[in-house]
Amino acid sequence: MKASALILLLACAPPAAVPRTSLLKEVEEPAVAACKKLGRFAGNSALPGESGMEQAREQARAKAASAGATHIVVAREWQNPDATGAAVEAYDCPR
Asked: Rounded to two decimals, what is the model's pTM?
């Protein structure tokens, strides 16, 4: 009985918020001059090559979106034998 009540409770819970990375606009530095800077966010991956870079980029973008960013500027991307990483500067710009 307890298990079915737990399943019912979980089924009725609202879904977890998913960062809206598709709404982020990637721009150059001059485009965010009038925006509020939210910070620098980084992602990394142990995967090699482009698949690792894509995973690192997506992590950085998700962190920026979770912080409320509307725009990002790519800050740095790197690869070495052990890891791949990407960092973005996140901004909240007026619409």
From this structure: 0.76
